Amino acid sequence: MKDTKKRKKKRSRKPEAEAGTAAESRMKEISEIPEEAGGLQNPEALPEVRDAGLADQDAEPAVRDEVFADQDAGPEADPADGRAQSAAEPEADRETGSGKRTEAAKKSAAKKQVRTGRRFKDHDSFVSGIEEKARARSRLEMEEEEDQRRRQQRINRRAMQRERRARAVRRQKIMAVVVAVLLLILLAAGSQVVRKAWATSTLSEDVLAYRDLVEKYAEEEGIEEYVDILMAIMMVESEGTGEDVMQSSESKGLELNSLEPEESIEQACIYFAALVQMADELGIDDDKALIQAYNFGPGYLTYLSENGKKHRQKLAIEYAKQKSEGKKIRYMHLYAIRKNGGWIYKFGNMFYDALVQRYL
Question: Bridge-partner residues for 344, per DSSP?
Fold first, then answer.
């Protein structure tokens, strides 16, 4: 719209500029008339020329009006039409102004309606935003309540679990005390039985039947003073029953129980004589060490030579632990039950000396 107004202003200024240019041209022509008429050469003609010029000047406004009318009407317009058009222009301008005002009023009304709709829309958006915030706040409150409820449930569950664990621990403690009391009672009763059995331990008739053979082969090996020990060993090994009564087949490099009774007794005497000779060479003078070495092997004598040269059950237990790498097996003998609840290391019998001694 601004560009249109500028163009209209330019068009309205153009006829005035053209009219001014025409008037100047006319005046120039009038000023040049005396020179063309020879006024400078004929001073007497000057008044006439001046009169003619003045007449022309008097006629100049009409000329100017004619020129302006021509300029407004265009190249082919009639002066009368120009004046009519000039007279009609104010009315047209009023109609145009009225139309512009109407159009401006419509635009203003439209803008006002748009602003009003925008305000209503903004108000609706504001209200909906408040409602959405309220709903969001309500959801958050509900979520917080739900979280609090869940936390309380977890706390209650943990409390119940702790209470159950505490009850279980109390039950276990009570059971442990009861079991311990029962074990003490059983151990006490078992100790009485073991002591009575130990006090009345004697060689069986089957063992006593082999005494002559034991004395024979012990004398051949020069260990006749160890006959009672050999008889007690037979009682512990087999109680005089079976074929390999001295369990000496392994010391000969044979499979277990692969010797007859007499062969077993002969091999046992040979083996025991070798142990006696080795103990003498190591400076060990201990019959208990010989008895334990019969079960552990000659390596136990070497171990004793490095640890005091006297047999003690503690040393036998330590030696068995080293050889078995700490592996244990169940051994439900009365003596073992009384000592440790019924187990030995998985290497020989660490209580062998005590078991043999009961028959001496």
Answer: 329
- pLDDT for 185-217, tens place per residue? 877 666 565 555 555 568 999 999 999 999 999
Residue pair 290/255 in contact by the 8 Å Cβ criterion: no
> How would you classify the pairing of strands 328-330 and 343-345?
antiparallel
CA atoms of 148 and 9, how far apart (whole Å): 79
The β-bridge partners of 330 are: 343
Number of Cβ within a 10 Å radius of residue 52:
15
* CATH tag for 205-357 (out of 1.10.530.10, 3.30.450.20, 3.60.20.10, 2.40.160.60): 1.10.530.10
340, pLDDT greater than 60 = yes
Give mean pLDDT, residues 218-223. Answer: 95
Give buried/exposed letters for 247-274 (b at 16+ CB in 10 A, else e).
bbbbbeeeeeeebebebbbbbbbbbbbe
All structural domains of the chain with their residue ranges: 14-117, 205-357
pLDDT tens digits for 264-301? 999 999 999 999 999 999 999 999 999 999 999 999 99
